[in-house]
Amino acid sequence: GTLVGSRACVRMAAAAWASGFLNALLHTANTFSIPLCQGMTVDQFFCEISQILKLSCADSYLREVGLTVVSLCLVFGCFVFIVLSYVQIFSAVLRIPSEQGQHKAFSICLLHLAVISLFVSTSFFAYLKLSSVSSPALNLVVAVQYAVVP
Questions:
Q1: Secondary structure (3-state) at 36
Q2: 49 near 70, Cβ under 8 Å?
Q3: Of 29, 28, 54, which is closest to residue 39 (Cα–Cα)?
Q4: In this predicted model, what pLDDT tens digit does every residue of 32-42 receive, in sequence order?
Q5: Mean pLDDT score, 80-86
Q6: Partner of 41 at 20 to 30 A CA spacing, among 11, 32, 114, 130?
Q7: Angle, nearest 10°, between helix axes 61-94 and 99-128?
């Protein structure tokens, strides 16, 4: 409460919800606007937009590039926000007078950073891997890793 006021917390929560809603709305609108003609089987345990675009009978290159650009902008914005937040958190933790208090605060922060790193690294691998490395079993393992484990 002393580091971040309630007004800032509400703004951060609203920004997180708004960016998530924008991303979901973009993906949903894109999904329902493409004609599907290659069956309805998706090689994932949930309907990922990249898998749905593969079922399209129309040229989906521009759609895929647009979705990728918007998603990367949102991811980059979140990354910058997380880095700036942690710079402020670490500077506040270093001002804690007791070593035990610093240790407790750092252990909590490092666990959070470990979960973020796991999520980001597996999602990067899921979306940016080469098609020569791709297999349905590997896709499923990576999707579970980044969607369920964190």
A1: strand
A2: no
A3: 54
A4: 887 777 666 66
A5: 85
A6: 130
A7: 170
